[in-house]
Design goal:
Blueprint lengths: L15 H9 L8 H11 L1 H22 L4 E16 L5 E20 L3 H67 L5 H36 L19 H11 L1 H22 L4 E13 L5 E12 L7 H67 L5 H36 L4 H4 L8 H8 L8 H14 L2
Antiparallel strand pairs: 1-2, 2-3, 3-4
Helix pairs in contact: 2-4, 3-4, 3-11, 4-5, 4-7, 4-9, 6-8, 7-8, 8-9
């Protein structure tokens, strides 16, 4: 099982360097996306939970290794014997003995056809699967932080747009009132302007509420509240084609790799169960001393045996165990196929979503430009009496909608770019080049894989590691 003791991270994708540059290309004194992702990585309790689950899987390897070694027990027993003997002559003899019996018992399975070795190999595959699952959790956490980061940006811009809209509508209301005072417009025009101002106040309140919700989500995702965010973040370059992205994901996505290791673990489990049907040889050694406490008598005993055992019948349980492991293997294969299909679909969805968002952003930019020209023209015409107040308000609403659509499209493009990275399996702290201490999944495993004794050097290192983890 080579490779278990090494960090099993994926090979870096060609987009990794672009991603690092994208994360760091931000103005000074502003919190950039890399800052938020680093804190999300460091502060995530979900990551801590799954790292603990990985350490538990590491210990399973040590437990499986321990079954290959002898078991030695020290036993001390205090005994009190009562006996009564009546001879043929009717003589009654009573005995009352108190014994102290210390024993040293060793038992070792010398041969089992390789069942325990297959079990060790299966546990190692489970460790590799759990490492990939940890990377998948890491991607989920970072993607959530990314979505929260850009959503805060979106809501901040939305509040600014709504506040500016309220200011413009206030000016329109005052202009309508002035024109009404000189008889150029009717009270209906004033009422229309008042209605739009009231709606703008409501929209601003809603936008401010959405901003508070976005900040709360950011705090939950990152582990702290947002600071001043960078205005723009350069996005990673997309892959050349959806086929290239899918091919990369099929080789590197942690969900697929985890499912592959689960299939291997299940296949090894079948081998272990089948070997368990064969014979086994156990050696047993026992040393004991019997000390009679009410006399000076002492007896020393030594016992050594070899035992050959062959299961013949256990009510059908032996065959059922093999069939059970085969069913688990079939389920793991089915899960692998499902995961592969889901990953490829996720890549396709993310690629399409990014393409649509980029096209939408281009279209909304043109929409804003045209709406601004229309609004400026209609507003100027209204001062000359060629346009009504309703025309001005309608043009202003069109401009507002265009600006909101533009910032929304920009946010969707940003999130989609990183969603595509996640779908390919490269949205990890290591591949993004975050300024964090990358968690090494092999460090703890290397200390536990051989099931060190409590008094060994490795065990003392483990104690220090566990103490450090407990203080976090």
């Amino acid at each position: 099982m080579r490779g278990v003791g090494k960090v099993s991270f994926f090979k870096r994708g060609v987009a990794a360097a672009v991603v690092v540059a994208a994360l760091t290309a931000v103005p000074a004194r502003a919190e950039n996306l890399a800052d938020a992702l680093a804190d999300a990585y460091n502060n995530s309790s979900l990551l801590e939970q799954n790292r603990a689950l990985l350490r538990a899987a590491d210990e399973d390897v040590g437990l499986a290794m321990s079954t290959l070694r002898p078991v030695i027990n020290f036993i001390i027993a205090a005994q009190r014997d009562y006996s009564k003997t009546v001879s043929s002559l009717g003589i009654l003899t009573r005995r009352n003995n108190s014994n102290l019996v210390p024993q040293l018992v060793a038992q070792w399975t010398l041969y089992d056809g390789g069942a325990r070795k297959f079990n060790v190999a299966a546990r190692k595959e489970t460790v590799l699967a759990t490492r990939q699952s940890l990377l998948s959790i890491e991607q989920t956490i970072l993607l959530r932080a990314i979505a929260a980061y850009f959503n805060v940006q979106l809501q901040i811009e939305n509040v600014a747009i709504q506040r500016n809209n309220l200011r413009l509508l206030g000016e329109e209301l005052r202009a309508a009132q002035d024109r009404f005072d000189v008889g150029e417009v009717t009270r209906t025009d004033v009422a229309l302007a008042q209605s739009r101002v009231a709606a703008a106040r409501s929209n601003l309140a809603t936008a401010q509420g959405n901003l508070e919700n976005a900040r709360a989500e950011f705090t939950n995702a990152v582990g702290r509240g947002p600071r001043a965010l960078a205005a723009q973040t350069r996005l990673p370059a997309p892959p050349r084609s959806v086929d290239a992205a899918q091919a990369f994901a099929a080789r590197n996505h942690p969900d697929i790799l985890a499912a592959q290791h689960q299939v291997k673990a299940a296949e090894l489990g079948i081998q272990s169960a089948r070997k368990g049907l064969g014979p086994s040889v156990d050696a047993r050694a026992q040393l004991s001393v019997t000390d009679q406490m009410n006399s000076s008598t002492r007896r020393d005993d030594a016992f050594l045996s070899l035992q050959l055992q062959q299961p013949l019948y256990q009510g059908g349980g032996l065959a059922a165990q093999v069939r059970r492991t085969m069913a688990q293997r079939d389920a793991a294969r089915g899960n692998l196929l499902t995961v592969q299909r889901n990953v490829l679909q996720d890549v396709d969805d993310a690629f399409v979503q990014l393409t649509v968002a980029r096209a939408s952003l281009i279209a909304t930019a043109e929409r804003v430009r045209a709406a601004q020209v229309a609004f400026d023209g209609i507003r100027e015409e209204a001062t000359l009496g060629a346009r009504t107040t309703l025309d001005v308000l309608t043009a202003e609403q069109d401009l507002l909608n265009a600006r909101i659509a533009q910032v929304t499209a920009r946010t969707e493009q940003s999130v989609a770019a990183y969603q595509l990275l996640s779908a390919q399996g490269v949205l990890t702290a290591e591949k993004l080049g975050l300024a964090v201490q990358i968690y090494d999944p092999a460090a703890y495993y290397n200390l536990t894989k051989d099931a060190p004794a409590a008094s060994s050097k490795q065990a003392k290192q483990l104690d220090r590691v566990l103490k450090a983890l407990g203080k976090r």
